[in-house]
């Protein structure tokens, strides 16, 4: 079984490549290294390039016979998407359509799409299930929702089966210590907190302590990146076995507050971790938590690293490297 992983040199993609290789799959990684690292790809064939390059895509599909394609090659910064919407619609939508069209031309009909909770917009209720209204409030979320809608059309017209995995806050690092998170710039809470613990930054900023939550800080749903990779693997197995197109929300189902993350990080690292309180950020809801019962019931997904201390300990091991 040969799988094409686009964006396989990035944070989540590199963990997926490792999971595929461990299962005996052959992997071809395509990445332009704009947000990934060549040394994060731990095996298989690596191709430097972009899904905007249709000629390159045709050459890759002519050379290899793929059972499926997994897509992690999106731009993901919400704030940047507001400032540069063209960049997000071009890459996340137009370039993805390039990829889908080449897949159809070469009769590759299984697609795993890395989607996001941002397609839901402001939560009308929590935890958020798959039936929650889709009303994204920024170009990043809209670009992902556009692709999900296009995938429904490609299924009806061309029989292309897709699994859309909508996750909330990917966190943690490879338990073996080989892979981890290294975005530039970094915007995710857990690595920012751990950078404050290691001395790479002086403090962590807490945006708002007056939310209607037990400790006043925002609650978010953190899911270990290894558990994410496992969910993608189960979705891949589902499609390869002839399963229908599907969409799943991924999260631990509980959520942890910003202050809980800081407190647990202090315990795990033994460092004081200085904090600076700031005003709320516009558009930050008090709670964002996933209802992931559907994937648990239908695919048997069971997170193995749902404990916050475990997530932070794995990320800390990576940070100290």
UniProtKB/TrEMBL annotation:
Keywords: Carbohydrate metabolism, Isomerase, NAD. GO terms for molecular function: UDP-glucose 4-epimerase activity. SUPFAM superfamilies: NAD(P)-binding Rossmann-fold domains. GO terms for biological process: galactose catabolic process via UDP-galactose, Leloir pathway. It is an enzyme of class 5 (isomerase). Pathway: Carbohydrate metabolism; galactose metabolism. It holds the Pfam family Epimerase. Residues 3-251 form the NAD-dependent epimerase/dehydratase domain. It catalyses: UDP-alpha-D-glucose = UDP-alpha-D-galactose. It comes from the Bacteria. Its EC number is 5.1.3.2. Its cofactor is NAD(+). Homodimer. Belongs to the NAD(P)-dependent epimerase/dehydratase family. This is UDP-glucose 4-epimerase. It comes from Acidithiobacillus thiooxidans (Thiobacillus thiooxidans).
């Amino acid at each position: 079984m040969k799988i094409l992983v686009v964006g396989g040199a990035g944070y989540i993609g590199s963990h997926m490549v490792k999971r595929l290789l461990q299962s005996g799959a052959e992997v071809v990684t395509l990445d332009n290294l704009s947000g990934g690292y060549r040394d994060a790809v731990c095996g298989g064939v690596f191709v430097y390039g972009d899904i905007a390059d249709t000629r390159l895509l045709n050459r890759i599909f002519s050379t290899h016979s793929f059972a499926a394609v997994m897509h992690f090659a999106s731009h993901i910064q919400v704030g940047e998407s507001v400032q540069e919407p063209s960049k997000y619609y071009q890459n996340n939508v137009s370039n993805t359509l390039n990829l889908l069209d080449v897949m159809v031309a070469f009769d590759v009909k299984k697609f795993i799409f890395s989607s996001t909770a941002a397609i839901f917009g402001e939560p009308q209720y929590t935890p958020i299930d798959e039936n929650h209204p889709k009303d994204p409030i920024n170009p990043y979320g809209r670009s992902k929702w556009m692709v999900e809608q296009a995938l429904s059309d490609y299924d009806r017209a061309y029989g292309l089966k897709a699994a859309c995995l909508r996750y909330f806050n990917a966190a943690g690092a490879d338990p073996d210590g080989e892979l981890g998170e290294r975005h530039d710039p970094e915007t995710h809470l857990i690595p920012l907190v751990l950078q404050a613990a290691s001395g790479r930054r002086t403090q962590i900023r807490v945006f708002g302590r007056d939310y209607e939550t037990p400790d006043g800080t925002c609650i978010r749903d953190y899911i270990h990146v290894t558990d994410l990779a496992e969910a993608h693997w189960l979705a891949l197995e589902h499609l390869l076995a002839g399963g229908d197109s599907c969409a799943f929300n991924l999260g631990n189902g509980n959520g942890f507050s910003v202050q809980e993350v800081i407190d647990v990080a202090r315990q795990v690292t033994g460092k004081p971790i200085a904090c600076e309180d700031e005003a709320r950020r516009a558009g930050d809801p008090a709670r964002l938590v996933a209802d992931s019962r559907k994937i648990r019931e239908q695919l048997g997904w069971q997170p193995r690293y749902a404990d916050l201390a475990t997530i932070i300990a794995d990320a800390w091991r990576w940070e100290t490297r």
